[in-house]
Design goal:
The protein has 4 helices and 5 strands. The protein is an alpha+beta fold and about 140 residues long. The chain has one domain: Aminopeptidase (3-Layer(aba) Sandwich). The chain has a 5-stranded mixed beta sheet, with helices on both faces. Strand 3 and strand 4 form a beta hairpin. The longest helix has 15 residues. It is globular. The termini are far apart.
């Protein structure tokens, strides 16, 4: 049985394992994950757990700026282990994170994925997300000396 719930700092070591599968090995460390889960009030992390094993996660952040009259949520990561895909786990994670966003006063969500990631696009469309005309661009800032 898969349980969808908010992540806890005690989940950090399991989240390192699954985050490495999604973002690449060594992408994070347990201490930083635990710290973020405990103190970052603008981040939401839901996990799909089978017992004590984390088999999927969905992260999002909340922002509000002077030019935007409402809180906006951005789903930043969604990952489900290969053997748990096509069983509704991804959908349940999205529903779980949406519930948490609503509890925190978020009225609009944004989600992005790679242009070639058809499986994710299909999932997001089935959850009610619509294509936009936005063009997303990225830039890495150089480190300060």
């Amino acid at each position: 049985m898969i349980d969808i719930r908010l992540a806890k700092p005690s989940d950090a070591s399991e989240l390192v394992i699954i985050n490495d599968l999604f973002c690449g090995e060594g992408s994070n460390i347990a201490d930083k994950i635990a710290e973020s889960l405990e103190f970052n009030m603008t981040e939401i992390v839901c996990v799909a757990a089978e017992g004590s094993r984390i088999v999927g996660y969905c992260c999002g952040g909340i922002s509000q700026t002077m030019s935007c009259p409402y809180k906006c949520g951005t789903v930043t990561h969604l990952y489900v282990m290969e053997e748990y895909r096509r069983q509704g786990v991804g959908r349940k994670l999205i529903e779980g994170v949406e519930i948490e966003f609503r509890k925190r006063g978020v009225s609009h969500l944004h989600i992005s994925t790679g242009t070639e990631n058809r499986a994710a696009q299909t999932l997001y469309h089935s959850c009610g997300y619509k294509d936009t005309s936005e063009f997303v661009m990225d830039k890495d800032l150089p480190k300060e000396d």
